[in-house]
Fold:
Amino acid sequence: MTPTTTAPGTLDLVPSSEPDGPAPAARARGLRKTFGRVVAVDGVDLDLPSGAVVGMLGPNGSGKTTLIRMLLGLTRPTAGHVELLGRTGADLPAALPDVGALVEGPGFHPFLSGRDNLLRAAATEPRLDGDLRAPVDAALERVGLAGGASGATGGGDAARRRYRGYSLGMKQRLGLAAALLVPRRLVVLDEPTNGLDPAGTRDVRGVIAELHDAGTTVLLSSHLLAEVEAVCTHVAVLQRGSLLVSGELTALLDGGSGELVLTTDDPDAALGALRAAGAGPYLRDGGVVVPAGPLEPPEVVAALVAAGVGVWEVRRRRAHLEELFARLTEEDE
Amino acid sequence: MTTSTAAATRTTAPLGRLLGAELRWVLRRPRTLVVLGLLGLVPLAIAIGIATTGGPSAGRGPGLVAQVAGNGFVLPVVALGLSLALLLPLAVASAGADAIAGEAATGTLRGLLLAPVGRLRLVVMKSAGVVTVAVLAVLVVAVVGMVAGTVVVGGAQGTLVTLSGTTLGVGEALGRIGLVAVWTVGQLLAVGAVALAISTLTEHPLVVLACVLGGLIVFGVLSAIPSLDWLQPVLLTTGFSAGTDVLRDPMPLDGLGSSTVRALVYVVLGLAVTAWRMRRRDA
Structure:
């Protein structure tokens, strides 16, 4: 993934580690969408590297869903273009048989059972042939809606009950099952854990991990940071329709911060010693923080020891994604 | 999972499977079944009314409904004519409303486009659903009408006495009933095509129903204003009364013909708007 930013200088960007990898599963260039005078998405360049699990983060209304809808051809971009599995323009729908999607929540008919809803969806899937019941039952099994003791939700045969009576979590599971009816090359999940209980969230993570192991590219949009951090290899952060940053998760985490947090027996003396050594230390929550600067960690410790300050703990703080996210989204405020 | 080589490369599901899925969906929808059931009550109600009053009440001239008395095969024709005023268009408009606006409202239109069904194939699939409802609705009224006409009203050995006073044999009577049924389907397809077109413009099925029924009422009002006579040829409702022409002998064909041509124009325009909108519609 090519790291990009619309606010130069706000973040130290890390170059992609695999510039010559396989063609990206999806690519957006200069993507823009306006609804009347509202700019929903503006100037987004994004690559979904093949085989990656890309987490798309952003506060509500940041344009995540609009961006996904444009990637899938559900909404026409005002400007820019989209390439999906190598298909673009009028040819874009030709990529869709290999794309599974759960966008803007599950959509099913209330008067049909979950299974009948899936059978209807299966009938429209170009990749399925012959008996549609087998793939439908496999997908139901995979999301825990199949009958019998293995059903994780609602007990009994949830799939044979009318969709009308489903809980929010069961609806999400059914939507996920529809996206997984066929082995896919790209799976797009728009806030898939909305309304799921912790067990459901764990199941979704399991499914994403299986997809990743099978080499499927996954695009996961979420405002739950822990979710993205737990399952994603790449991350893209949207704010007000613009892509703030995108890149590999580990690179972004390392690149975002290099500060040391020290626990000492005499913080004031530590501050003095470190200032004398040329670092710019400050106190936070009783600990001494040394921002990334001229001193390497051994030099910091050496300076403290030389000044007679007892050092109990030295920790390099990896920027937690939540902090990164908070920092990125607050910078513009 | 069975996946043939064709399935591995094709970009849309086979049309036959799509049509099958659409028809199953239309026929399992409770609304469709309720509407079809209610339509069956129309000829029954007329038959019971005729049977209990026993013909035209004193002091009134014999109306069309009164023609049914003792002449059972007139019942399906009369029932179709009466239902065409509002009930049959309601049934077809509701199918058209559910077809696209309804799918958008439940969030299932996205799924169809993402499968992908193909936008023009979606129009074909949805049209097939609306045609099915139109045909079934007319069949219900005609068949229940024939059964009720024979059983409750009775007739002169299955013959039909025309408005002109002549008597038609069983074969020709059935032919006339078949003709009016086909003609009624044609008129309903015009309503259905317009409903589909409106359906592509909104996410609210009720808007489609309101537009179609409101439009029919407005057409009725316009055609009742003498100074707007010149509008008659473009109003769909103008030809709705032509169905009872089959009860005349010899049967005049100009009313049936011109109303069918008018319906055809509505079908073409409706489908053109539907296809044009579906090619661009966001889902």
User: Anything to note?
Assistant: Chain A is about 30% helix and 25% strand.
